[in-house]
Amino acid sequence: MGDGLHVTVGPAAIYWRDADTASGNYHIVAKITQTQNPAHPESYGLILGGKSLADSAQSYTYFLVRAVDGMYSIRRRAGYAARPTAVVEWTASAAVVKSDSTGKATNELSVQVRGGRVSFMVNGKEVYAADATGLDTRGVVGYRVNHNLDVHLGPLGIHKL
After folding, report:
1. Of the N and C termini of the chain, which has fewer Cβ atoms inside 10 Å?
2. Model's pTM, two decimal places?
3. Does CATH place domain 5-160 in 2.60.120.560?
4. Is the pLDDT of residue 2 over 80?
């Protein structure tokens, strides 16, 4: 299916390479395509600031979109057993491309960390910005795909600013 990684999942999962890390001022970006209708609204997106991802102490910030209804959310995970906390609850945005009748939708997600601020963008439009101190920004970057989705994860760009 070309560059990237195609995943069809049951339970939610994160995908990363230990070598893909970012700190300081940086920009991460990837195009993600939902390829078919999910059974119910589910989301996909990027993770950043990942630490201890392979064990129960895992922590990271994640930025998700739901193509079914055009919404996004930003959350933090601090430990595998702990319930994630919402930085931004599900919020509608015209920037999120909604899925067509077959369930297909492509959205480019990006996060820019610069000068102590973090900007979250969908298809080149900022949907949220915040002070970096309240988020995980130093560590592994990668993808998160929620339950029962079929998606194509385009290559992850990691750019030092």
Report:
1. N
2. 0.95
3. yes
4. no
